[in-house]
Amino acid sequence: MTERQDLLMVQEDARFFAIDKVAAGLGMIATTEKLLSKKIVSFGMPSLPALSLSLARSAYKKRAAISVEDLFDAHDPPQGTWPENHTPLFDYIELVVTEIVFSYMSVEGAINELILPSSTYVRRGKQTETLNGSEIERSISL
Q1: If 28 and its partner were Cys, which of 19, 53, 70, 137 is the partner (CB 3.0–4.6 Å)?
Q2: Domain span including residue 16
Q3: How far apart, in whole angstroms, are the C-alpha atoms of residue 84 and residue 86?
Q4: Strand partners, 123
Q5: Number of domain units in the chain
């Protein structure tokens, strides 16, 4: 297409579900929603895997900037080493959990987006079972 469209694409948020060059500009999959105030708003659809990966990356950056050793205080013997204030330690643990959960969620979301309603999966075992797209999402583990 055009250099202008290339520039527009680079400037867009990577968390869009679907956006591409259309005609002389860009097009995206969008939705229209009604707020509680009855106002109607429209916006591009976000991608669940991209949102999840963004949250995981944000948590990683915050966690990586923390020195774990600095979260603990040395006390006179025989007390040992423990935090005077547990809040920063718990915040650190929350970041670790956020990284793990949202990383896994991004992988699962990306795979689920690849499963079409017309997809089939044959599970062999004691009984052979054929699953459709929505059944695959619900019953096949990563």
Answers
A1: 19
A2: 1-46
A3: 6
A4: 129
A5: 2
